[in-house]
Write a structure and sequence with these properties.
The complex is a heterodimer of chains A (about 325) and B (about 220).
Chain A: E1 2-10, E2 16-24, E3 27-31, H1 38-46, E4 53-56, E5 59-60, E6 71-75, H2 86-90, H3 102-105, H4 121-134, E7 139-143, H5 151-168, E8 172-176, H6 179-185, E9 188-193, E10 196-202, E11 215-224, E12 227-230, E13 233-236, E14 246-252, E15 257-259, E16 270-282, E17 285-291, E18 295-299, H7 301-307, E19 314-319, E20 325-329
Parallel strand pairs in A: 3-8, 3-9, 6-7, 7-8
Antiparallel strand pairs in A: 1-2, 1-4, 4-5, 9-10, 11-12, 11-14, 12-13, 14-20, 15-19, 16-17, 16-19, 17-18
Chain B: H1 3-31, H2 37-49, H3 52-63, H4 68-75, H5 84-109, H6 112-120, H7 125-153, H8 157-162, H9 173-180, H10 186-219
Helix pairs in contact in B: 1-5, 1-7, 2-5, 3-5, 5-7, 6-7, 7-10, 9-10
The chains are: A alpha+beta (about 325), B mainly alpha (about 220).
Chain lengths: ~325, ~220
């Protein structure tokens, strides 16, 4: 998706947003502290905040009202219509077609005849996401979709979003105050502070020192006990012995170790050859992207020099089996 | 019609006629950013603060056979002054401010983000109002209707000026009570009328509370 946005918003009380974004990426992240203008910028893209210039894939939607922009807007509060059942919520949009595979993809098939008041918080968010996907948007806008979730639920939800994005080919703009969430999902990111863009570029480049809990999301097929094949590579993973079929895994970038040659006699069960795809500089660290499978690792500039890692160079990837956590069925 | 039948008819008719206008006015006051809405709100609230007899006099000026609206309506065969429709008009006007206030309060309680989500799903603002806002505002509309009905049921000053006190035609319960004060044996009939009024209002209030609680629980609106 090609995105061009210029937004200027002045609010009583002194806050003003003056931001411009121009990028082309399937997923764009907007990160910043509370009050930095992230949600205001998202509202401007949606057309809720008037006056912004917004061009999506060459289509200038600046003058179009929200109901003509074909954007799916999902907030952390889900906002399911309380007077309608889950099924009626899902089919609310006049653009919605048959439910198809969407309920199964989000694990909500058994909830269709329930009322929103009988759903848990996590279930409501998944229904809200399904409702947005079913409205056939050209773009999904997600405002802090993982806020309030504990670590395990957050990883599960982020992994789910990563797989949905691939499955339904949906461009996404994702807002979060947690940079690592953005980096885990977005190819391009913008960091906002006090209503201004302070950094923009490949998502890893907007990271600050200390923001290293970047997650890798993988989908693979169980090929043996605690073994998952991802992009042709068999990984030892921390999955239940009863797991089968397609599964989703998550692995922190900080848990990936890179080496020039395979180590001898090591406890880590994963040790395989890969190729360096890209290097991105962040504050005081380098994000190294390797494949296959596509993984990000975090290394220091010194390590990068010592290992002579460059794009295209071979590298050995080392990780413990427990580093690849099972976050759900695909 | 006797006084009870007439009062109930006037109450129901005035509430139903006011309903669409009260909803429209509440939406205008709560959901638009019109610069004149505060002035409009002040005018709408006037019947709440003016003496009912003054309201009645103003209505008579407008709806009498020589008044601007009364003349036009008479040509269409719709009499208002000194007719039971005059009682309906008086009840509708004096109950209108409260009706609007209750609906506006309910509208204020509806999270505007629901409407935003609806529009993001491709639903126009008009259809969003019908499919989202209105269903979530029902408790307030019911409460407003109950209050407007009760207010109309008890209206005296404006009714007696606009509709007059014609037994069987425009003599509602309050007017009948007033007439019975001087009539021999009137006290007994007054007691009956008073009890009927109280019973009607109690049933109405209880019904609207039950419906309101049921609806809120169903939608978890108090969450």
């Amino acid at each position: 998706m090609k995105l061009d946005v210029e937004a200027r918003v002045v609010r009583p009380g002194g806050f003003d947003l003056d931001a411009a974004i121009s990028c082309e990426a399937p997923t764009v992240g907007i990160v910043g502290p509370s009050g930095s203008g992230k949600s205001t910028l998202l509202d401007a893209i949606a057309g809720i905040e008037p006056g912004a210039r917004v061009v999506l894939d060459g289509d200038d939607v600046s003058r179009k009202p929200l109901h003509h922009r074909w954007v799916g807007y999902v907030t952390q509060d889900a906002l399911l219509f309380p007077h309608l059942s889950v099924r009626a919520n899902l089919l609310f949009s006049p653009r919605a077609g048959p439910l198809g595979e969407v309920p199964a993809a989000l694990g909500i098939e058994r909830l269709l005849d329930r009322m929103p008041r009988n759903l848990s918080g996590g279930e409501r968010r998944r229904v809200a996401l399904a409702r947005a996907i079913l409205s056939r948007p050209r773009l999904l806008l997600l405002d802090e979709p993982f806020a309030g979730l504990d670590e395990a639920r957050r990883r599960e939800a982020m992994s789910l979003l990563a797989s949905l994005r691939e499955r339904f080919r949906l461009p996404v703009i994702l807002v979060s105050h947690v940079a690592e969430e953005i980096i885990g999902l977005a190819e391009w990111a913008v960091r906002l502070e006090a209503g201004r863009v302070v950094r923009a570029g490949p998502s890893a480049s907007v990271l600050r020192a200390g923001e290293t809990r970047i997650d890798n999301y993988l989908t693979g097929t169980v090929v043996g006990e605690r073994r998952v094949r991802v992009d042709g590579v068999d990984l030892a993973a921390g999955i239940p012995s009863s797991a089968s079929g397609e599964v989703r895994l998550a692995c922190y970038a900080a848990d990936i170790i890179l080496a020039r040659e395979p180590p001898r006699a090591i406890s880590a069960r994963n040790c395989f050859q890969a190729v360096v795809r890209s290097l991105t500089e962040a504050e005081e660290m380098i994000i190294v992207e390797v494949e296959p499978p596509r993984l990000r690792a975090v290394v220091t500039p010194e390590a990068l020099r010592e290992l002579a890692i460059t794009p295209g160079s071979p590298v050995v990837v080392i990780a413990k089996a427990t580093a690849f956590a099972h976050v759900g069925a695909a | 019609m006797n006084a009870v039948e007439l009062s109930l008819t006037v109450g129901v008719a005035s509430t139903l006629i006011s309903l669409p206008f009260a909803v429209a006015m509440a939406v205008y006051l709560e959901r638009t950013r019109s610069r004149v809405r505060h002035a409009v709100q002040t005018i709408i609230m006037l019947p709440l603060v003016l003496p009912p007899v003054v309201v009645g006099y103003l209505l008579l000026e407008v709806f009498s056979p020589i008044g601007p609206l009364g003349r036009a309506l008479a040509r269409l065969g719709v009499p208002v002054a000194f007719h039971w429709l005059g009682a309906v008009t008086a009840a509708a006007v004096v109950g209108f401010p409260l009706f609007v206030l209750m609906i506006a309060l309910a509208l204020k309680a509806v999270d505007p983000r629901f409407e935003r989500v609806s529009r993001s799903l491709g639903v126009s603002p008009w259809k969003t109002f019908w499919r989202v806002t209105l269903p979530l505002t029902w408790p307030g509309i019911l409460a407003g209707a109950a209050v407007a009905f009760a207010r109309g049921l008890g209206e005296f000053g404006a009714t007696i000026i606009v509709a007059g006190r014609i037994p069987g035609e425009t003599q509602t319960i309050p007017l009948q009570i007033y007439a019975e004060l001087d009539a021999p044996g009137g006290e007994r009939r007054i007691v009956g009328l008073v009890l009927t009024s109280c019973a009607a209002c109690l049933v109405l209030v209880a019904l609207s509370r039950v419906l309101d609680t049921w609806y809120r629980r169903r939608l978890e609106l108090d969450r």
